[in-house]
Amino acid sequence: MGTTRFPLVRGVGGMPQLNPEFFATQLFWLAVTFVTLYLLLSTIALPRIGAVLDARQRRIDENLTKAAQLKAEADTAIKAYEKALADAKAQAAAMIKETAEHLGREAEERNRELGLRLSEQIKAGEARIAEAKAQAMTSVREVALEVASSTIARLIGAQVNPADLDGAVDQALKGTVR
User: Fold this and answer.
1) Contact, 23 vs 33, CB < 8 A?
2) pLDDT tens digits for 136-164?
């Protein structure tokens, strides 16, 4: 491998950019290129980039404003919902209380009516029992008179005075039934 020779460089090897003979022309073209690029960037590219950045910033600001507005609306809706929920709970509690009181009054009324009906049925039952007891006592008295009369007639062979027998049976029944 040998050194490469450049035909533009007059017999000197190496890189032409580092050759001091070309510095002036290189600096000239550097300045022309820099100014051209600067003008192109400052007049065409940078305004477009700035416009895009401004539009983006405006869109971001609008979105932030809209988000804040929507958040405020959501907060208002949440407060309205919570108030409506609290009102509904209060109304439901009042309805439950009112219904419970109404049902309590109805139950008391039914219990009172049932108590009166049962009291009447008890009185009617007691009257039927007393009547049945009186009938039973009458039947028992009659049976006792017949049994006593036939027993005495068989034992002593004579008939007993019905008035005496009647008094004895009455006395015996008074001693057993009180």
Assistant:
1) no
2) 877 877 888 788 878 887 888 778 787 77
